[in-house]
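Margin note from the TA: students keep mixing up input and output lines. Inputs are the sequences; the output is the structure of the whole complex. Example:
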Amino acid sequence: MTSIEPDPPAQSRGSGGSGSVPLVAMRGIAKRFGSVTAVADADFDLHAGEIHALLGENGAGKTTLMNLLYGLERPDDGSIEIDGEPVQFRSAHDAIEAGIGMVHQHFQLVPRLTVAENVILGTGEGRRVRLPDLDEVAAAIEDLGERYGLSVSAASLVGDLSVGEQQRVEILRALYRGARILILDEPTATLSPVEIDHLIERLQGMAAAGTAIVMITHHLDEVMTAADRITVLRAGANVATVPADETSPLELARLMVGREVSMLSEVGEVEQAGATATSTSAGPAVLTIEHLSSASASGTSGEHARDFFDLSLEVRASEIVTIAGVEGNGQAELEAVLCGLGQPAAGRISLDQTDVTGATPRQLLDAGVGVIPSDRYRRGLIRGLSVAENLVYDRIDRAPYGRRLWIDPRAVASRGADLVGRFSIAVRSPSTDASTLSGGNAQKVVLARALGTDLRLLIAAQPTRGLDVGAIEFVWNQIRAQRDAGVAVLLITTDLNEVTALSDRCFVIYRGRLIETPLDREAIGMAMGGAGSRAEEAAVL
Amino acid sequence: MNWAAVFGAAAIIPLLNASIRLAVPTGLAAVGESLCQRAGVLNLSLEGMMLSGAYAAFLATHYSGQPWLGVAAGVGGGMFIGMLMALFSVTLKTEQVINGIALVLLASGLTSFLHVRLFGVTAPERFDPMGKLEIPLLGAIPGVGSVVFDQSPLVYLAVVLIIGVWWTLHRTRFGLAVRAAGDRPGAADAAGISVDRVRAAAILASGAMAGLGGAVLVVGQLGLFAQNVTAGRGWVAIALVIFGRWSPLRVAAGAFLFGFTDALQLRIQSASGGIESDIPFEFFQALPYLVTIVVVVVATARARDDAQPESLGVPYIKGARSS
């Protein structure tokens, strides 16, 4: 753990004044969803005039903590004070009344309404039947926009605006409703670099004018440029609150991922196993990706944040190559292209030196490519079919399972029984409906279908997402067994523990570009947060 | 056949007058439905609402002898089906299409059953449909006066309501909430709007208007009730909403077209000799429906804008991830 203690409010650079009562004080906040603890004993405070970044990995509880402040959820434990007064919000409506505005990661705008209509939507309800004069509202919005450098045309339809402009509308809506506390959830996730710079500049202007801003993010570089103070959350609890000018990306990365091995007791062994595997020599290249792009990389301002650009890598037999990264950095699109579900805009994919760019999923399957898709329920399972049918549906038109119009139920059933046994899938019988499977068993079905034949290449995307510890161990062992049997494995994951447990080599994907990183938690964590240039420095330290 | 009796100069004013009159029941239902669909509810119970309204109006008028009481009962009859539709589709969030069809069957069965129970096989006596009310001065305008301002008071009421729906949709907070709830209920919810309340209110309004439409048919035009007296007008009204691209005034224009075809076929029918004619009268009766189908298909195929509410027919469940 770190020696850094949460800073006293006096350290904040904001205009709130040192020693004053914080605008927002959250103490001992806890929130559980069923058996999952999203936030556990978190503290957070916010002063007028500061930009306070809330930093953490996926699932660290950042958004949940802010949803609690915005009244979307109610805490199970702890207290929230605004201006020193305890508050209990029953809904977002109460929070808006108290001067809080939130801009969600997925904008909550109606595309077919104008900017002005979106801004007044839901305001003053029950008080007046008629809408206010929309021209006056539009003028007020444009005034507000000018004051904060967030110009929009208030008469245009929201659907006609760019993503950056829509975000401005969201911010203006909060300000129009009198927000003095503005919460932004992943505000840069869908913006181009130019738009990000512009946004940060505007936020700093707003903070200087006295607005308190919370910025939820996992981008270290943005935190360093934008924030006055940074609170790091890990596993639902705040690890530290530090002033931005007294910390470094390296320290933040360390705080985010934690130094100690946290998730599994076996991870120690696992990492050793990984280390020995690394030393075993990998075979010839199986998968070769050369300059693969999902879109032309020429434009810098207009580029879509979910695209990937100019990726090159090689996966050899008997090795696990990992592409780590925070979601939304282009890995889902890369997965689709590699599985034959999407076409690259440029570049080449080869399998055993044969060009397979643009091959269909069927051709890839026949060439020995097994896929564990990231969205197991949409791409990996058909819930209306039985477990046995799910286990063979990718080769249902082949002997011995099917011939011409017929399928052979006995061959399907015996294959089902065989795989259910080999992969210890816990079902009453292979003819059980797949919709009844638990998450872990559903993933075992996906795994069994992909691994039930001899493979050349395994593409495993988020293979343990949402699984319990036992199921994770099982999946990891299966993937390792494939590698040891000579299969080339490309692992796409957001989970740092998984990266260190399985990888022989590791890349980080950030804003659609690959960075090769050493197998070091801090280096990977930093690269995932966009501080890629400092990755080598971290490795040295 | 005497074509002058159909299209002659002397015939055209009564023809247009009749078009408006015949358009009103369908028009009221269709405009109410457009409001409901803009809120995101695909209300297929419209025919049931009309039928229920028609029967309630008939019963009230038959027993009280007061046509205006019949009109009020008609509104109530439509809202009764609306209440069930709101309960199933909004409160219980079940499949809207199924609910709608089930409620049409319910209304059809219930009204037929009650009618036979109450009156047996002998049809009850007809009462006199509500008379016309010529508006002073405006009614004296040549041409337009006799077409527009020499109608039943129910027609004037309908016109006011139709314009009222347009005004509500575009000039009131409720209307803005309706449009938001039909496109992005999640965004509306986040803005502090109760999507459920908005949608339930829209369904009830639709029920009131369709019920009134049924009442107009019975109290204002026929003076009697027969099994399934609405004869599919509710279904035509749903088609007209699509034809009118979910805009109340365009939907009303579509209803006028339907009324015009209906008036025209009646005129041709009588001009061609009525029952005596060589052409079966069913052919003429089918005309308004055929024209509606053709017009809707053409209009939909040619429409370039996608005016359909984005979340039409999708139950809104708080917190559930949609697109």
